[in-house]
Amino acid sequence: TRNPLQNTSQTGDAPGDDLVLEKIGDLVRTEIGVAEVEVMRAGRLLQARFASDRLFISGSADVRAERGPLIAKLAGLVGSPANGRRHKAELLVGSDWITPDQIRGSLPLPIERAARVAELLVDRGALPGTVMAGIRPDDAGMVTLFYRIDPEFRPTEASAPARPDAPAAPADAGVR
Question: What is the rounded average pLDDT of the residues 86-106?
């Protein structure tokens, strides 16, 4: 009776996180259409895979105009998570292997695409450190989205380990 919060140690993760992942899966299925969506860890991690051309204009780094609502909703979720939780979105654009020589002249399309999605998410309100985008070699033509919900841990002075006192320096230390 002292603690109004549900004791979840026996029931598993908080149901709110499961619902968020379910809604993200539904969002991806609705906005993208053909997508493989799998909850990798209940209440914590969701993976969605779909063809690159479902998100990007063919042969371009530009995101399809009709995907604007998906980007805005993802940015909103990672931009305003529930108290005590940290939401993160990771988008990997599949590509063939990219060698350093290929990057010297100009950026390869998969890298441009990954950067473009990250820029759009940040422009639409994603918090710093909540968005990661990159490439996934040997997965050409596909995009993989990971959505993670982690408990946010911010140590307080009371929970931080005590620091040992530094030894006092001699009075003439550093003086010559």
Answer: 84
